Structures are given as structure tokens and as C-alpha cells.
Amino acid sequence: MPSFDEVLKEAGEFGRFQKRVFFLLSQTGITFSSLFASVVFLGRAPDDFWCRIPGAAELSDRCGWTLEEERNLTVLPLLLGNKSVSGECERLDVTWDASAGCTSPLARYGNHSSGNLPLAPCHDNWVYEQPHSSIVSEYDLVCGNAWMLDLSQAILNLGFLAGAFILGYAADRYGRILIYLLSCLGVGICGIIVAFSPNFTVFLIFRFLQGMFGKGTWMTCYVIVTEIVGSDQRIVGIVIQIFFTLGIIILPGIAYLIPTWQGIQLAISLPNFLFLLYYWVVPESPRWLLTRKKGEKALKIMRNIAKHNGKFLSPHYSEITISNEEVSNPSFLDLVRTPQMRRNTLILMYAWFTSALIYQGLVMRLGIIGGNLYLDFFISGAVELPAALLIIVTIDRVGRRLPFAMSNIVASIACLITAFLPEDIPWLKTTVATLGRLSITIAFEVVYLVNSELYPTTLRNFGVSLCSSLCDLGGIIAPFLLFRLAAIWLELPLIIFSILAAVCGLLVLLLPETKGISLPETLEDVEQLPSNFGKCGKKRKHRDTNSYI
């Protein structure tokens, strides 16, 4: 009996059907990247805010002050008397009541100058020029509460981490498309609740859940795309990353046009409901169906693929059998049980962690230079487009390992050089740091493809999800690593990034080359990869089996 890849070749490896499915599922990258980076605009620092003194609101109403007049009469004296105080996180430790005058509220304190009056920290009496522009002003995430903004992004990454484990496992057990659709529904519903959260606790809970479901949409759509195309067409795994970058590029435009954080949140969440229409146009992965002993359904889908591609399967494909490998629910032990699987898993986990930590670290480092937030964010996203184009041009010519290793090495060198460049040539530091950003983006995108190609069908979604969970761990650690180490020496994080990337560049050379190779079908296939691959790009010999998987 022919293998699944041979049947797929006869039905069309990347015909009209696969192109349609690829284009539809790729839109998920836009919504996921918007969710991934949304905190930049949801958590914008307010342009202007100040701390209101207790009783000032009532006094303002009685005296008929505008907010500007109230600020001039109650906060300006603090600023004049205490040059080191901004009036944002501290206030005069006084309480105004009906006895205070409207023309000069401080007159009751006699000869005491405002510089001699006691100060108190501000807790919950902030006044914002634009109170609903971001979650910072909505939930008072300023001054002593500023760390809670970082917490909101950490919670999102924890959601990604939970989604990688829970929904990655579910997709291998219950099906790719089912989990994809449920995840899209979850992202949409949780996104709406986040937008109308009555308090910060509710915001965090559903931010976590939205992250979990968001990771489910991204991972399952990626696996579906790579499983329905032939081995020579798996470059689509890189092309789909372009849609992730498009989301990064589009996001600042959305944020620029929509003035409130609730509007931005709804704009990036509601499109997920449209993806539910894919139920009628995107089928279940036939590879997955075969692993679950559902050969008839898989054959039906293959005939439908052939029909849409203008092909016709041979009549003798009347029944389908699967391999004798026992179908079981995946677990972490399956990923480390055999020597080659163990090696691949550990290296890939480290590669995911390193790529995410350095990527987010460099993004945040470029973001602290100031300037126009919308333009800077747009440019930082546009920098990623050449990464995908470079991969597309080289990966099918020289293979996966060399670009994977070299991108890490170049990122390492760029970080090291940037750390020791003098401060008086900022344009050169920014240029070299951007080269590091481009290089680590290439590594980030290649690891997606390599990860999916090094696991058998029964473990592919779970393996990709579990390994990529280290990406989320890197995302959680990145801001703390960057800012804690930068407090010691501004360039110290770059030294750490350089070491991590160099080690990763050497380790990935130990992975087998997967250029032009059929996706492994069983654990035995994975164990045979080094001996079967031979030279880069040499295809594996087909073993004697009755499997279509």
C-alpha cells in the first residue's frame, strides 16, 4: 500500500484546495500577533495625570472649578514648593473641607509654605486627562501599582503556556479543527469580557483565558497547514509567519484610529468569530484521522482534495489501513523516551526559549529610545518582513540547519557588538541591534518549521505545543531579565542574549536536516532520521509497511 505522502502527491501537494485552506488559516496569524503585542497600546502610559487631594472634588464642585483650575490651586503649590515632587505619586497631606476658600485654599495654613507641608503617597485619587485611553488609567496602574501592568503581560504569557499544554494535548486527542474552532470561540468571548471588565481582577482572569485560547488557534492552524501539504511545500510553515508580522504592522494603525483601549481590545478580538465559518470549508487533518483509525474519513477528505485540485485518485484506493503502531494519548514521556526524540526535544525547547527571550528583549530595548510610538512600532514590525523572505529564498536550497544555526550566531555577534559600541553613535547601535532583531526573527520562524518536521504524526501537535511553551516562559522572563540587569549595567542584557544565542547556534547543528523529507509517521521514523537522511535533502527510503500515515 502506498504511503500517505504518495497519495497526497497524486491528489495534489499544494493545489487549489491547499492554497485556499492556507490563506484562510493564515488570517489567524494576524489576530494572534495583535493579541501577543496588544499590551503596548492597551497599556499606554497616560499623557497627563495627577493626584487629587481628599476633599478637593467636593471643593471643586462648590467653587465651580474646572479640572485645570483645581489642579492649579491644589497641585501647583506642591510643585512650586517641592521641586523633586511631580504631583503624580505624592500629594499634600491635607484635607480640604467647606472651610477652605475658593480663591486660595492653602490660606488656612497660615505662614506655612507648601514646601513645609507634609506629603503623603497617592493611592486611589488619580485624575487623568483621558481616563479611558488605556488600562493604566482605567485601573490606576501607575506609581506603586505600575508593576501590575507587567503582571498583565505575564498573565497573558501564562495563558499561552497553559494553552500549549492543554490545547496541544486536546488537538492530538480530539482533532485539530475541533480544537481550532473552540479556541476561536474562546478568544472572541474572553476578549469581549476583557474589554468590559469591571475591575482588574476580572481583567486578569479573562486575559489569561484569552491567551490560552489564542495559543490554541495559532498552534492548531499551523499544524493543519503543514499536515495537508507535501514535503516539498512545507515552506508554507514559514510563509504563514508573514501573516504574524502583518498583524504587528497593522496593530499600530488600529490603535491610532481607535482612541480607547476597549475599542482596540474589541477590534483584535471580534474577528475570531469569523473564523467559526471555517467549519464548512476547512476539513480535519487526514493525517490525524489516520492515527485515530478513521481511515474512511481520511480517504473521503483525500478524494475531496483531489477533486478541488482537478485530480483523481486511483480507483484501487478503496480502503485504507493504518500502521500497527499503537495509538495512545500523547504525554511528555513520549517526547523523551527514545534517544533521538529526547535529543530533538531538549534542543528544540532550548531554541524556543532562547528565541523568545532574545526577540522580546530586543523589541523592548528598541522601544525605550522614545519617539513616536505608532511609527516606531510599525517600523519594528516591518523589519521582520525581510526575515521571512530570506528564509523562503534559502531554506529549500541549503536546508534548515544552516540558516537556523547562522541566524543564532549572527544574532549573538550583533548583540555583543552593540553592547560595546560607544553611546555617541546611537544610529550605529540601533542599526546593529536591528540586525540582531532580524537574525533572531529568522531563528524564531525556522524553529516553528523544524519543530513540526521532527515529530511523528501522533505526537506532532503535542510536541510543537509543548516545546513552544518554552517560548512563553522566555516571554515571561524577558522583561524582568532586561530591566533588572540593565539597572546594573545598561548593556548587560545584551551580553546574556549573546551567550544564549551562541549556545543555541551550536546546539541546533545536532538536529537532523529535514529538507525535502516526508513528515515522520511513527517514533521509529524519527529514530531512523539521521541514517535515513544521509546528505541534506536526500529523501528517506520507504519502509515496508501497509500504512497510509
TrEMBL record:
Superkingdom: Eukaryota
Mode of membrane association: Multi-pass membrane protein
Molecular functions (GO terms): monoamine transmembrane transporter activity; neurotransmitter transmembrane transporter activity; quaternary ammonium group transmembrane transporter activity
Predominant subcellular localization, coarse grouping: membrane
NCBIfam families, alphabetized: 2A0119
Keywords from the named record: Cell membrane, Glycoprotein, Ion transport, Membrane, Mitochondrion, Nucleus, Transmembrane, Transmembrane helix, Transport
Subcellular location: Apical cell membrane; Basolateral cell membrane; Mitochondrion membrane; Nucleus outer membrane
Segments traversing the membrane: 21-42, 151-170, 177-196, 202-225, 237-258, 264-282, 347-368, 374-395, 402-421, 427-450, 462-482, 488-511
Domain named Major facilitator superfamily (MFS) profile: residues: 74-516
Protein name in the entry: Solute carrier family 22 member 3
GO cellular component, one term: apical plasma membrane
Family that this chain belongs to: Belongs to the major facilitator (TC 2.A.1) superfamily. Organic cation transporter (TC 2.A.1.19) family.
